[in-house]
Specification:
six-stranded parallel β-sheet, 13 strands, Rossmann fold, single chain, alpha/beta, globular, 420 residues
């Protein structure tokens, strides 16, 4: 499979029925990818449906677009209770088959499913099988400690099992979509060379209209009970080890004495909430660092902020970063997979080493000390997203891939019918 799709020479063809399956519809980067992608796929004349194992706030947004959302039976039993686990897996598979037939699905694309990716791959054996794609959103896509908070001892054996299963199930799928070039390299290194020819890169994109509307910054400051001259630094990321919040809080302790008008808005929830709040209190930063939890007004918060920081230790292609660039904010990000692909150092913002609170503090000081330069970086960031990371471009590349592979799958299904 080529690294890229020729979207200019692929004809639109007939309308495709596309099913996107994602673990949940909470506020998050991969969830926003699905919301945006199905919107623009539908706009191009195709018929998407979203399936999820857990309802969430994005469901209403998707349904307002006229796109159906189906809730699949959630998993309640682990493999440690094998008989219940197997019955549950068969029940989920039956429901997936029912929905594939109900919506006459041509294409299935998965997101964040981990072990359930293998279950979806078994739909390869349906009589009129759909094309099947796994989407890998992260450089470190194998199970992490955060995924098994109560069963850490299972982490190593489950990682081994996942590697083996990814390798075994690869022949049953039509392709793997990596959200960045470095994610593709990680997939090949983790699973093996046999998957490389089935893996292609389609970068995430954002719905530009959502992030380029004017907003009353004073109203946001008033809502957060902040002074009108407050300078706002925004971070949108789940509170987990990957996102590097602890280094940001350490950096804030170095910066706030010099810039007491700086306020740091942490948007997101997660298992490190109490730990990070305790760190903030220990450093005397409770007034400066605001934990806002999960929010649905992120476009407004972006528009009302002065700059954006993403201190991740690793990434795939972070949606929050691209959204902040679309909103015209100067960026401070760590030099990790995805972030360094999107950023142009010194032009759209500043790149720093991951896990280095001193370098992060220096970058924050530089942004705050040179407001004109920061404004120019914000404009350059916005232009880069418009040129390279728009949702319409992302959707066109997906549709081109669907059409190329669907022609092959459709021919195979036709041959099956004619040889009966």
């Amino acid at each position: 499979m080529k690294d890229s799709i020729d979207i200019e020479t692929t004809s639109r063809g007939d309308s495709l029925h596309v099913m996107h399956i994602i673990l949940n519809l909470d506020i998050g980067g991969a969830q926003e990818v699905v919301r945006t992608l199905v919107k623009f796929i539908a706009r191009d004349g195709h018929q998407p449906v979203v399936c999820t194992f857990k309802d969430g706030p994005l469901r209403q947004e998707i349904e307002r677009l006229g796109i159906p959302v189906e809730i699949l039976p959630d998993r309640r039993h682990s493999i440690l209770v094998p008989h219940k686990f197997i019955l549950e897996i068969f029940r989920i598979r039956r429901e997936l088959i029912r929905l594939v037939r109900k919506y006459q699905i041509d294409i299935i694309q998965t997101h964040l499913l981990q072990g359930l990716d293998f279950l979806v791959a078994t739909l390869h054996f349906l009589e009129k099988r759909p094309s099947i794609y796994w989407t890998i959103h992260n450089y470190n896509f194998m199970l992490q400690r955060d995924d098994l908070p109560r069963f850490q001892w299972l982490l190593r054996p489950k990682r081994f099992a996942y590697r083996l299963l990814y390798s075994l199930f690869t022949p049953w799928i039509d392709g793997v979509i990596a959200v960045s070039g470095e994610v593709k390299e990680a997939i090949t290194q983790t699973i093996g060379p046999k998957i490389k020819h089935k893996t292609m890169v389609i970068c995430n994109g954002v719905d530009l209209d959502r992030y380029q509307s004017p907003v009353n910054k004073q109203l946001i400051q008033k809502t957060l009970c902040l002074a009108e001259d407050a300078r706002l630094m925004l971070v949108v990321a789940m509170l987990k080890e990957q996102k590097g919040h602890r280094y940001l809080i350490d950096a804030a302790a170095k910066v706030v004495p010099q810039f007491p008008d700086l306020y740091i808005l942490l948007v997101g929830d997660g298992i490190l909430m109490k730990e990070l709040q305790a760190q903030t209190k220990a450093l005397g930063l409770e007034k400066q660092i605001l934990f806002l939890g999960t929010r649905e007004d992120i476009p407004d918060l972006l528009a009302g902020s002065d700059f954006f920081v993403l201190p991740s230790l690793w990434e795939g292609l972070p949606m929050s970063l691209i959204e902040a660039m679309a909103a015209g904010l100067p960026i401070i990000a760590t030099e990790v997979s995805g972030s360094k692909q999107v950023m142009v150092p010194g032009v759209t913002g500043l790149l720093i080493p991951p896990g280095d609170s001193q370098k992060l503090a220096d970058a924050i000081v530089e942004i705050l000390s040179h407001p004109q330069q920061a404004t120019e970086m914000g404009r350059a960031a916005q232009q880069r997203v418009e040129d390279e990371y728009s949702a319409s471009k992302q959707a066109r590349e997906h549709i081109a891939l669907y059409q190329q592979k669907h022609q092959v799958t459709g021919q195979l299904n036709f041959e099956r019918e004619t040889t009966k």
